[in-house]
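for the writeup, i need someone to sanity check this before i put it in the appendix. the sequnce is what the collaborator sent (i think, or maybe the updated version? ugh). structure was predicted straight from it, no edits. if anything looks off just tell me and ill rerun, i have time this weekend
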Amino acid sequence: MKIIKFVGLGLLVLVIVLVIIAFLLPRNVRIERSIAIKAAPEIVFEQINTLKNWEDWSPWHKIDPKMKLVYGDIPSGKDAFYSWSSDVKNVGKGKLTITKSVPYDTINVTMDFMEQGISQGGYILKKADSGIQLKWWMDADMGNNPIGRIMGLFLDKMVGKDFEKGLKSLKDISEKLDNVPLKGSASTDKPLSYIYIHTTCTGQEIPKFIGNAYTKLDKFIVENKAKPTGPPFTLYYKWENNLFVMDACMGANKPLKGNSEIKSGKLTGGNIYTVNYYGPYSGTGRGHEMAKKWLKDNNHQLTGAPREVYMTDPMTEKDPTKWLTLIVYPFK
């Protein structure tokens, strides 16, 4: 009997000691991993900033490819979110929201794991030789539960492996996209009548604006008994500090009179330098740089707004490495 009491007392003391030790352990645990990526910052940034891209590189998406995903109306940038639900225990359900988005520098997210609590995380991009250094971090609140505090001792090792897998996938995707060769050529363009919708917006707002604008333009052309001429395009008048002044345009087979929102315009034609760019729209900056360099090296002057012509429909071609965008610079 005394032995049983002694063992029971010993176990009680052990439990008390473990509880005391647990409460001395840190409540908040930070997990960090980083990787060098030989790709343009805008390409890496867009892979993270546009949430649907996570399906290609997120380690948790790969654990359960069948998990249910629901996206918000904002596709990228601050306030973009998606919720997930999975029958796989290690995935579960929750919601991820982008809370901060500074182009080519920082993205912060909040992860709501429902009954398991809320964690903060983020991504930091730093310029490095031939690319960037990307850091992925997460702060986890282990709560006041002693078991949770003890689990915090092993969290870095467990979650860190997933971070490493995700960063490796991000590296492979980004470097593949950045290494797609560019081709440029000079030619002569024909005049083109078109209709357009004008806006000033941030880079994160461009996809939503363009999607809505092209739907309206296509409907307007049909209602006016005309036909679209060629693929849709955008005209860029100014871009700096992530602010873009631009038109979403669609060619028509005859001049059309616009309305309060939709205006009509005409490209006069003439000399153009065209860069063929394959890849996601976030990487078109490489094409613009190539076109500007060609104009400078050959002593030509820009004579109008540069434009991007979208030759591939992303709704039918899901692989972004196959999306062809023509980057056109008129010159004299």
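Residues 304 and 330 are 6 Å apart (CA to CA). The two ends are 102 Å apart (CA to CA).
thx in advance!!
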